[in-house]
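User: Can you predict the 3D structure for this chain?
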Amino acid sequence: MRRLESLSFYLSATDCLVEGEASGVVLTRSMPCRLWEGPPERDEPGGEPVTGRALVVSCRSGSSGAGAGLLEAIHADQGPALVVLDRPDQAVALEAIAAEEVLSRSLPLVVLDDARFALAQAAHLITLHRGRRLVLSGPRLAGLASVTAGGELGHEPAPVVAANDGFALSPEDRRCLDGGAGPAAQAAMRVVVRMARLRGARALLDVDRMHVGSDIDIGPAGLALVARLVEWGDGFRVPTTIGASGKATTRFVEACRALGAMPLSDPASLRASAEMPWPLALCVAMVGRAPAPSTH
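Assistant: Here is the predicted structure, written as structure tokens:
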């Protein structure tokens, strides 16, 4: 009998948070972990390099919290070839989505159910093809497929895609998505909408003010992201404040000021501000819209 050493199946649009084509040898990790601390590109002291690998990350033990440095890794061309998660991690997803929409740097990011994730952990090589077809290969898959997934994963057909996911967009939202409000608003709206869908929201809400956190760790990728928004020539749509203290660099603060932000250094005045990761806060400020509360 021929040993099963390759499994192929199609992902749905909701399973593939960032699409693309990539292939890499599997490297397994568990959250919380850092994917990039600067050269050498290792996710933890003494760990194996993540560059070019298919990073299979279990999020059961916790969240990455701050995206695990994925945005910096992508910007530095030192990230994994693709990332496979066992459940959506909003911080990791936000950094991958922001890199794609604002910096035009894509790193495929997929989420698998428990059965398929176990197969991904056992695989030697993972390849994502055009059309969201994921191929797992390696000698350890023989026998495991029948135990984990009923032995029916040799090849699965593409899933049926719903014509409308029920997400509500206003005329102005659509104008932003179509580029009618400029390239910065278009990219920012795409980030906001994708994160809203990931959170389980069905619509966006108006915001009348925004604050970009006062204690944020900005690296070269963060500077490149806000510089791209400035380069596109648009500005914040709603009154926005930026923390002038903490780890935020002077260049980042100055770029936010160029977009219309006002420095704010009094920590007491920030207690009422909603907690929002800085890449999403920037995008919300650009369009004046934020994800509505989740329906989950």
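The radius of gyration is 20 Å. The longest helix spans residues 183-199.
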